Amino acid sequence: MPANPSRLSRTICIAALGLCLGQTLADPPAIVSPSASNADQTPADFLDLVGQRAKARWRLMFRPPPPTPPTDRGRAALILGSLLGDSLLVWQAADSQQFRNNNQDVLTYCRMLGLGEKLMPRLMAQGKMAEDSEWKDLRHEIVDGHQELVRLLREQRDEDLALMIDLGLWLRILEITSAIVAETAAVELRPLCIGSPAILQEMRDDFSRLSASKREEAILKRIGISIHEISTLWKDADKVPPTQIQVVMTQEKFKGLMQALMDK
User: Fold this and answer.
1) Engineering a disulfide at 96: which of 5, 7, 130, 232 sits with its beta carbon 3.0 to 4.6 angstroms away?
2) What's the rounded Cα separation, in Å, for the pair 47 and 195?
3) Residue 34 above 60 pLDDT?
4) 248, 194 in Cβ contact below 8 A?
5) Is the torsion defined by CA of 190, 192, 193, 196 positive or negative?
6) What residues contact residue 150 under an 8 Å CB cut-off, 6+ apart?
7) 167: domain range?
């Protein structure tokens, strides 16, 4: 599947960030996977980068199961996106049982959106891969499964839900990485907690492409405001070294959004 041109900036910026961090730390520069030319794989590549640059205790980032799927399809899509972020997190930890547990939650939310039957074979295959520790193949399956989910939603003209899947995924990924960065004193790692300015811009763009009625819903309005506030907080990060206060404030915002999303 050809890359989505509107998302290539994320990949380019992450690659540059990896090289920059590699130059400032003692170990070699991070190498972004060649598959990063497909922008939809960026969240997986970004977590790889975080694992290379920081001492990430992935299992400490696991969280309790999500609530029963809400009747609000938009909120369900946001939570499903965050569960896809958990799939990548658990893959980093190579925890087969946790992966199967999370995959069951993914299937439950897919069913709520009317995609359970179409995605169940793929999700079952992913669970078997985790059970057999086929981690390399599983990584590709997680990425391809995300792409298929978004494609199916767009085919049934649920563009808002497709956008919210991506928003939920990135919110969870950045909640994880900002928590990891907050635990380290290394100034060089602080930019990782927002991924990159390009990622924040793409999230703003995704939000702006939502229908006007969706943007006015309470949880989405809060997401839009928070993304704007985080972007403002980091607007001079390329000129002035980020502070630990910035990191903590950013982590608290992402954590607060995830808590609000998961509250019944």
Assistant:
1) 130
2) 10
3) no
4) no
5) positive
6) 40, 162, 165, 166
7) 5-262
CA 99: distance to chain centroid?
Answer: 16
Spatial distance between the Cα atoms of 138 and 241, rounded to a whole number of angstroms: 37
Cα distances (angstroms) measured from residue 261 to each of 26, 145, 215: 39, 23, 15
Average pLDDT over residues 13-39: 38
What is the number of alpha carbons within 13 Å of residue 65 lying toward its C-beta?
15
pLDDT digits (tens, 9 = 90+) for 92-105: 999 999 999 999 99
Q: Concatenated DSSP letters for 76-107?
A: HHHHHHHHHHHHHHHHHHT-HHHHHHHHHHHH
**How many domains does the chain fold into?**
1
| Residue pair 51/181 in contact by the 8 Å Cβ criterion | no
- Of the candidates 223, 217, 197, 174, the one whose C-alpha atom is nearest the C-alpha of residue 50 is 174
Q: Which of 160, 238, 153, 162 is nearest to 194 (CA)?
A: 238
Instruction: Give the helix ranges, DSSP H, for the chain.
Output: 8-24, 42-53, 73-93, 96-112, 116-131, 135-155, 159-182, 197-209, 212-215, 218-233, 244-262
pLDDT in tens, 119-160: 999 999 999 999 999 999 999 999 999 999 999 999 999 999
pTM of the model: 0.85
